[in-house]
Amino acid sequence: MSRTPSTGARPERTRSSTGEAPGRASGWWFRPVPLARIAVFRTIAYLFVPVDVFLTTAWVRAHAGVPTEYYQPLTIGRLLPLPTPTSTVVHVVQWALVVAALLAATGRAPRLLGTAVFLLYSEWMVIAMSYGKVDHDRIAYLVALAVLPTIGRVRWRDRRTSEAAGWAMAAVFVTVMLTYFLAAWAKMRFGGWDWATGSTLARAIVRRGTVLSDWTLEVPGLLVAAQWAMLVLEFAAPLMLLVWSNRARVALVVFLLGFHLAVFASVGIIFLPHCVAILSILPWERVPDAVRQLRERTARGRPALAQQSAGAAPPG
Asked: What does UniProt give as GO cellular component (predicted)?
């Protein structure tokens, strides 16, 4: 194994013709993936932070004006000496998080800045969820922020493969899967079979429905069937870990994002941090080459277009 000083990435194994690392089998958790995949996804993940802070969870800033006695920290907030979210603390965490994320998106100092982003975002979530409301759509994104700093410096065109990168992407993939599986488990734990046979979706559409979903209230049995379908798909979520090929990964991401877009169109709820984590499944290493090929085709087409324009010009 070797280490390339120019990138600072962790030692990696090169693939054999079968796609596995030479020597002993690395297993599913450490199956090497291209470092370019990490580079592209890391940029996406860090650029999402300001979007989340200023748009998706802009309401967290309102906690700066909430009396501190209403602060009931999550378990991690009770175990660690985290500060009580005063106005100063909330605004310092907010702006430090945004600045750190924008710097981390450049790829510089990936371990230092990436760790800072993870810690600051974790504190932002403690501030967000310690007032009686806990969302389940952020765990996979938090795991992504936690594992990305472990890879080190990589570039968009880095063609090497790495077991460390494979482990990081596998950790995010498993957490994405568990988000669905544990959601189904929670439905059964707290709602029982009444969740599937009751009026769960009907109530949601009555409260938050759109013109695209209101009609479903008039179709007997449709929403109950949709509830059973959701349970079956969520309990079957571990099967997504069997996806191997890049084409199957793209199809899986399209299906998952399509599901979340359908939910948004129906009741106006979108799990954006989770959707960002889903993007880690895609073979992003193909993007730099695709962009390069597009530029080359455009460059080759310009002379031909110029010749056609010159030939079509009227005689002087």
From this structure: endomembrane system
Q: Of the ranges 55-69, 139-153, 297-311, which one carries the lowest mean pLDDT score? A: 297-311
Q: What is the phi/psi pair of residue 137, to 5°? A: -95, 15
181 HSE (CA, 13 A, CB side): 13
Count of CB atoms within 10 A of residue 37's CB?
26
Nearest Cα to Cα of residue 97 among 67, 70, 123, 132: 123
Cα 268-271-274 angle, rounded to 5 deg: 165
pLDDT, tens only, 252-267: 999 999 999 999 999 9
- Measure Cα distances from 100 to 95, 103, 156 in Å: 8, 5, 20
Taken in order 84, 90, 91, 93, the sign of the CA dihedral is positive
Q: In angstroms, how far apart are the furthest CA atoms of the chain?
A: 84
Backbone angles phi, psi at 88, to 5 degrees: -65, -45
What phi and psi, each to the nearest 5 degrees, are found at residue 235? -70, -25
Give the mean model confidence (pLDDT) for residues 64-76. 89
Return d(Cα 266, Cα 49) in angstroms, integer.
26
pLDDT in tens, 18-27: 343 444 445 8
Query: Which among 127, 42, 119 has a CA at the least distance from the CA of 84?
Result: 127
- Total-model pTM: 0.83
How far apart (Å, rounded) are the C-alpha atoms in residues 127 and 147? Answer: 22
The token pair at 32 is 């090497």
